[in-house]
Amino acid sequence: MIIITIIAAVVALIAGFAIGFFCRKMIAESKIGGAEEKAKQIIEEGKKTAETKKKEALLEAKDEIHKSRTEFEREIKDRRSEMNRQERRVQQKEESLDKKADSLEKKDEQLNKKLKEVDVLKEETLKVKNAQLEILERISGLSVEEAKSYLLKNIESEVRHEAAIMIKDIEAQAKEEADKKAKSIISTAIQKCAADHVAEATVSVVALPNDEMKGRIIGREGRNIRALETATGIDLIIDDTPEAVVLSGFDPVRREIARMALEKLIVDGRIHPARIEETVEKSRKEIEAIIKQEGEQATFDTGVHGLHPELIKLLGRMKYRTSYGQNVLKHSTEVANLAGIMAGELGVDVKTAKRAGLLHDIGKSVDHEIEGSHVDIGVDIAKKYRESAEVIHAIQAHHGDVEANTIIACIVQACDAISAARPGARRENLETYIKRLEKLEAIADSFHGVEKSYAIQAGREIRIMVKPDAVKDEETVLLARDIVKKIESELEYPGQIKVNVIRETRSVNYAK
User: Fold this and answer.
1) At 330, is the secondary structure helix, strand, or coil?
2) CA–CA separation, 75 vs 77, rounded Å?
């Protein structure tokens, strides 16, 4: 019974599943059919919408084409009208040109007629001119060439007279404007710069505590003095001068090393070849340190920075170099300060001017070791340590070896002359000084009309007396200029030389 019940339940369950499956299948098929109908409707509606859009697009395109065609036709019409106007204008111009061409042809014919008339008149004029020239030659007794020469001579005299007056007026006007400014700048620069000068010669004197020290310096059979001279390269002069030894040599650095070493040996008391070599080496190192310090101090005093270390050492060496008795380092420092002040007054680069002024004589630090002038040596040194083109040019031009092309070069020239020309700054050899004065007077005496010349103020001025019957007042200006040019070309001198031409006429009579 139970088994039958279970089987019936299983059969009922299977029948339920089958009925449910068939029901779901029928429902699904009905839904699919509805979906397909709906899809067909959507497709039909889409086609209708697409057709409508297509028609609208075609209509819009046709409208746009119509508008474009209308605008194009209008533009073509405007261009045609413009071309018509241009054609009319061209036609008018052609007509005008034709009229002008006809007019020019008529004028050309008239000009040809007038030219023929002018040629006829020219021939007649030449005949009249020749006839008049013959009459003038006969009356004056002069040929044409002689008359020309006479007229040119008179005109030249008048022109020279007028030129001299004009030059005198221009110079007076320029001096009024320039002298005040130049004197102001130079005096301001000199007042602001006060540098001490030390004059050194080619000898140094070392004081001895007593004359017995001379024998110890000479040593047995002269071995000490020979060792000292060999180590330093300086000559020791031991003579009858009481309690003094003279060191002689052209190299100031070596002479200073020898002086320092000898002073140390005298204080120490131990004088023998080994001690001499040791002391000289120690003095050399001290001098090198002093040279570096002096170079650095010079750059600090002038405000010039960024120099190559080797340039600083070369600057320091100039402490022991003199020129005409003037210390070269002090001179270079003074030139740098003067150049900076003048550059500031003139509105140019102060730093570059100071740098050029400080380095302008750098060649003198090694001119006893390298062949050539200190200018060429200085230029090579400046190029080697990559100084600027302005500084190199200022070094090259400071003695007039080349023409100064920059304001800074002119400033360095002027400052170098001012520092060297200051009374007491330099010592000149008396013979050289006298020769320069004689040469100055000889140049002035070589000109026509000069009666006597006098070089005064240590060669800074020359006064020239001219013959009043040979030189006129207005010609003195030209004579002074000619003498100045000859002095500039033939003489070398620091600063400037004033040329003063004097013409004097006297009328003398006696009352009896």
Assistant:
1) helix
2) 5
Cα 32–Cα 34–Cα 39 angle in degrees, nearest 5: 95
Report phi then psi at 270, rounded to 5.
-90, 105
Question: pLDDT tens for residues 433-446?
Answer: 677 788 888 998 99
Handedness of CA 278, 280, 285, 290 (dihedral sign): positive
Task: Go through 113-136 and write b for each residue having 16 or more CB atoms within 10 A of its CB, e for each that does not.
Answer: eeeeeeeeeeeeeeeeeeeeeeee
Q: Do 214 and 240 form a contact (C-beta atoms < 8 A)?
A: no
pTM comes to 0.47
Instruction: Show the CA angle centred on residue 416, arms to residues 414 and 421, nearest 5°.
Output: 95
Structure token pair of residue 354: 């100071």
Q: Taking a C-beta distance cutoff of 8 angstroms, is the pair 257, 284 a contact?
A: yes
pLDDT, mean over the chain = 81
pLDDT band with cut points at 50, 70 and 90 for residue 184: low
Contact 283, 261 (CB under 8 A): yes
C-alpha dihedral, 5 to 8 to 12 to 18, nearest 10° = 140
Q: Give the helix ranges, DSSP H, for 425-470.
A: 430-445
Spatial neighbors of 6 by CB under 8 A, at least 6 apart, are none
Edge-to-edge strands, sheet with 498-503:
450-456, 461-466, 498-503
Residue type, 150: Y
Compute the distance between CA of residue 310 and CA of residue 284 in angstroms, rounded to an integer. 17
Residue 491: both structure tokens together = 């003489």
C-alpha span between 487 and 444 (Å, rounded) = 9
**Strand ranges in 213-258 using DSSP code E only, listed in sequence order:** 235-237, 244-248
DSSP per-residue letters across 171-223:
HHHHHHHHHHHHHHHHHHHHHH---------SEEEEE-SSTHHHHHHH-GGGH
d(CA 199, CA 424): 10
Q: What is the pLDDT of residue 135?
A: 79
Burial per residue of 299-330, b for 16 or more beta-carbon CB atoms within 10 angstroms, e otherwise: beebebeebeeebbbbbbbbbbbbeebbbbbb
CA angle 495, 496, 502 (to 5 degrees): 155
Q: Give DSSP secondary structure letters for 45-97.
A: HHHHHHHHHHHHHHHHHHHHHHHHHHHHHHHHHHHHHHHHHHHHHHHHHHHHH
